[in-house]
Amino acid sequence: MSAHHLKFEQIRRVYSEAVTKAPGLARWLTAAGVSPADISGPEALSRIPVLKKERFLAMQAEAPPFGGFLGAEPSQLGHIYVSPGPIFEPSLGDDPTGHGMKWMFAEAGIGPSDIALNTWSYHLLPAGLLFDQGLRACAATVIPAGTGNTELVADLLITLRPTAFLGSAAFFRTVVDHLRRSGRNLPADWSLRHAFLAGEFGDWAATRKVIEAEFHLKTWTCYGTGDFGLIGYEVAAEEGYRIHPERYVQICDPDTGLPLPLGEAGEIVVTTLTPGWPLIRFGTGDLGRATELGSDGGVERLAGVEGRVSAARKIREIFVYPDHVRRIANQVAGVQEARLRFGRCGNRDVITIEILPAPNAEVAEEEVGACFRSLTRLRADHVVRVADSSAFTFPDLIAEDRRLSSP
Predict the structure, then answer these.
(1) How far apart are alpha carbons 324 and 320 in whole angstroms?
(2) Using an 8 Å Cβ cutoff, are 58 and 109 in contact?
(3) Is 264 exposed, middle or buried (0-12, 13-18, 19+ CB in 10 A)?
């Protein structure tokens, strides 16, 4: 049987089983006029509408906690992650790979001789534990550092001498700056050989080359989301991301949802072939383009992520949605309207919330900041009052203000 037929046979098998347990999924397919048995190829799959994350948030709110998409028994779950939204992401307990993250580490040659310092969050968000599981699947030793605490992380790089660092590129730079201010001679004073870093929009390849040359190490990255875990991973001597074999990826027109030709930019749409959390034709909201297609019509290699096609914006590695900003006005007494703008300053994103108070209302800026933090887990740097709607810096609920960015 060809690879084309094998992949769609797996899709039919996974989703035929899933609809018996996941009423939300069953309704979604029925509304599209598609049954799992119909999904014999890319044309049939593409009859199913792209499920946008904003719509999925609403579905989870209507049928908590999983929107009727859980294709497993609750007793089979190992973790339930909670991403800002909130959006709930279940994880089966029998998955030892970190939702496929081991593919990235195995390709990088990570093994029993490696010690990895993991600075991703282990609190509610999936990144910390998924990377941890992927590393352990490769028999590496993990230091579960979590986020923040720059001084301690910097000290651990020297005292425990890990061979791999995991974290955002911005935090890596923050730790490096701290070590240099402390008089450390880098890279002579540490043992790092690998840095697994989150990508940044813009010339990310150039940024990586600078880091590799400066610190004599190899940088790696991957493409993944909290919904799926790993989607694509890097292979040495190849450009872009090789697609995880249990993901079917399409590049689609953001408006019509139809697949686009090779090389054309569109929304990255993913169907998982693993049971338990059966997301089919799920729109990531990320903009990308395929550089190689398989015989089954799916993306084999992805050039990278070029931006966002949805209104959500990624700030300090967390997605912030327009609804988060609307809810500030709904939840904080005296706030009539709100806007959020952000810009880059040094190694971090600066967040400013602009609010329009209702007439004669007293609004505590601390309450605005606390509300935003409860919704997104991000701390705003500034809360600014405006006199009327025309005084908002930008008309959009969320906007990048490049005037804030440092050169």
Answers:
(1) 7
(2) no
(3) exposed
The answer to whether residues 282 and 270 touch, using CB atoms and an 8 Å cutoff, is yes
Report pTM: 0.82
| Angle between the N-to-C axes of helices 169-181 and 150-159, in degrees from 0 to 180, rounded to the nearest 10 | 70
| Residue 323 half-sphere exposure toward CB, CA atoms < 13 A | 13
CA 356 vs CA 225, 320, 398: distances in Å: 34, 20, 15
> What's the pLDDT tens digit per position in 70-117?
999 999 999 999 988 889 999 999 998 999 999 999 999 999 999 999
Q: How many CA atoms lie within 13 A of 208 on its CB side?
A: 17
Token couple for 259: 């697949």
Tell me which residue has tokens 């810009």: 343
CB atoms within 10 A of CB 229: 28
Contact 46, 39 (CB under 8 A): no
Q: Are 49 and 43 in contact (CB under 8 A)?
A: no
Give the angle 232-291-4 at the CA atoms, nearest 5°: 75
